[in-house]
What we know:
By secondary structure, the chain is of the alpha+beta class. The protein has helices at 23-40, 45-50, 123-126, 172-180, 185-190, and strands at residues 4-9, 53-64, 73-84, 87-95, 101-113, 118-120, 152-158, 191-200, 209-216, 228-237, 240-251. It folds into two domains: 1-142, Thiol Ester Dehydrase, Chain A (Roll); 144-252, Thiol Ester Dehydrase, Chain A (Roll), CATH 3.10.129. Strands 1, 2, 3, 4, 5, 6, 7, 8, 9, 10 and 11 form an eleven-stranded antiparallel sheet that branches. The longest helix is centred in the N-terminal third of the chain and has 18 residues, at 23-40.
Amino acid sequence: MDIWHETFPVRFGDTDRSDRLTLASIFNYFQEAAINNAEALGVGRDLMARTRQVWILSRMSVQVDRRPKYREEITVRSWPRGWEKLYALRDYDIRDASFTPVVRSRSNWLIIDIDKRRPLRPQSAMESLPLNEGIDALPSGALSLEIRGGLEKLRERKAAYSDVDYNGHVNNVRYIQWIQDTLEPELLETAGRMRMDINYLSEIKPGETTEIWRVPITPDGSAPDSASAAFAFEGRKESQAAFRAELRLWND
């Protein structure tokens, strides 16, 4: 149980017109693996409900080195990796049939007191779990995203029934779908490699409206070239940031 793994073929509904796994589907696979691993380790939803606590995803980075194709057999893995201050750390990867990692990810989670809506120190829930020291799926790069200028408002999204999960707020995967929907489909369909970093700053509840803002970015501030694209995003709810994200795409 130190490292949870599930092997299955890529499903039709998880691909786009390129016949390859989408970024949102990758986030969904990792969400399911994290939930299943937590249940197997005894810190799943039932235990947390009894203690009036809940796991909340705070930050996540995903590096896609190759997008698996429809019906390709993959192994999705996830494991806890100790804690840092208020954050519980969890890593993930997706491996192909030869067990080569094609997607790598890391995440930070908070344990929230349901009644007080405040974060708790993770040690009480994490001390009995494997630390998996040295097994870092994605060890480099910063999770904290800077505030950027020049953002353009693209659209508004009102949190509807299909956006909201068991915890009563917009599910983390929906944020990725909202971001995808602001881009030209061809950008996503032709991208063979991707990198997404996202910080979930505040929950979005049913019926609340979020403004999606975006600006192109490159390391030197110039416009993206024809072989790559990069964008910064901010979701705003009542003028306050609900999330910040950066997405980088590279063509095949």
